[in-house]
Amino acid sequence: MINRRAVALNLVLLLVLAAVSLASLALGSLSIPLPEVIRALRGEGSPVTALVVTELRLPRLLAGWVTGAAFALAGVVMQTLARNRLATPGIIGIDNAATAFAVASVVGTGVSLAPPAMALTGAACATALAFGLAGATGTRGYRFIISGVAIGAVSGAITQVMLSAVPLDAANAAYPWTVGSLNARSPDALRLLAVGLGIGYLLALGLRRPMAILQLPEPVSTALGTRTGQVRLAGLALSVLLTGLAVAVAGPVGLVALIAPELARLASHPGRLPLTASALLGALLMTVSDLAGRLLLSPLEIPVGIITALAGSPYLLWLLLRQSPDINR
């Protein structure tokens, strides 16, 4: 059956994303009229306009789309598995661990793997360690979250040690992976993330019903024939894949994974798992944050990770102080 409310919400989000995307292509230190932007996208218009629109702004717009969607999709899956709003890749340390491994490949620590592969390795190691420290609780309970917070803190400290021990040029090359940035992203990493996001979205759709059943008490889920262990393992693997690839492109912008799923739940029908709405809201938040970072102090640019942190931190504090983190409340 088609949920009309979900379809209407997704269409509205697509229209808003399209409008904000056009604004992102048109606005900046050099403002370009919208008709000129359209002509540049068609391969027409002046060479200067084509350079700014298609070579400078369009790649970072696409990077914002796929990274925001990947972070948000990873967030909604992990929150659903843990039944806790705080259980996002950024909160439990996956972002920081992926960043530390990616930085290690950039600053020349003797590791020859590319940043995407290293980021995936870091994300997988952080998840496995947090899962192991959580013991029998698995992804449930606060022990998993506290373990992840500790892992994230240690990973962040390791990143700072690496940056302080290398020449300034190497540290500058790794800087985007420490704050989150969409400027001059690697085309290869972007293509890899786009493929991974497509595969991950299809896998998430396949896990939608089992993950929804996991919101019921454990005996009920088991009685309905759901293999809870396999579902959680598949969901964790999906979150690791999406987070690692997204960090390899944009660095740690984890608060998108916290905010986008929550906004999607508020706008969706109660009890449904808003995968598509979360992904669209993640892409929208990244696009808006990147545009704000380019305009607020123009011609200076504020990295998108700083903008999302400024916007998301008050919400995180409100969630901790005012609301139950249980996802079903």
From TrEMBL:
<dbReference type="GO" id="GO:0033214">
    <property type="term" value="P:siderophore-iron import into cell"/>
</dbReference>
<feature type="transmembrane region" description="Helical">
    <location>
        <begin position="188"/>
        <end position="207"/>
    </location>
</feature>
<feature type="transmembrane region" description="Helical">
    <location>
        <begin position="233"/>
        <end position="259"/>
    </location>
</feature>
<keyword id="KW-0813">Transport</keyword>
<keyword id="KW-1133">Transmembrane helix</keyword>
<keyword id="KW-1003">Cell membrane</keyword>
<protein>
    <submittedName>
        <fullName>ABC transporter permease</fullName>
    </submittedName>
</protein>
<dbReference type="GO" id="GO:0005886">
    <property type="term" value="C:plasma membrane"/>
</dbReference>
<feature type="transmembrane region" description="Helical">
    <location>
        <begin position="144"/>
        <end position="168"/>
    </location>
</feature>
<dbReference type="Pfam" id="PF01032">
    <property type="entry name" value="FecCD"/>
</dbReference>
<keyword id="KW-0812">Transmembrane</keyword>
<dbReference type="GO" id="GO:0022857">
    <property type="term" value="F:transmembrane transporter activity"/>
</dbReference>
<feature type="transmembrane region" description="Helical">
    <location>
        <begin position="117"/>
        <end position="137"/>
    </location>
</feature>
<feature type="transmembrane region" description="Helical">
    <location>
        <begin position="94"/>
        <end position="111"/>
    </location>
</feature>
<dbReference type="InterPro" id="IPR000522">
    <property type="entry name" value="ABC_transptr_permease_BtuC"/>
</dbReference>
<dbReference type="InterPro" id="IPR037294">
    <property type="entry name" value="ABC_BtuC-like"/>
</dbReference>
<feature type="transmembrane region" description="Helical">
    <location>
        <begin position="304"/>
        <end position="321"/>
    </location>
</feature>
<keyword id="KW-0472">Membrane</keyword>
<comment type="similarity">
    <text>Belongs to the binding-protein-dependent transport system permease family. FecCD subfamily.</text>
</comment>
<feature type="transmembrane region" description="Helical">
    <location>
        <begin position="62"/>
        <end position="82"/>
    </location>
</feature>
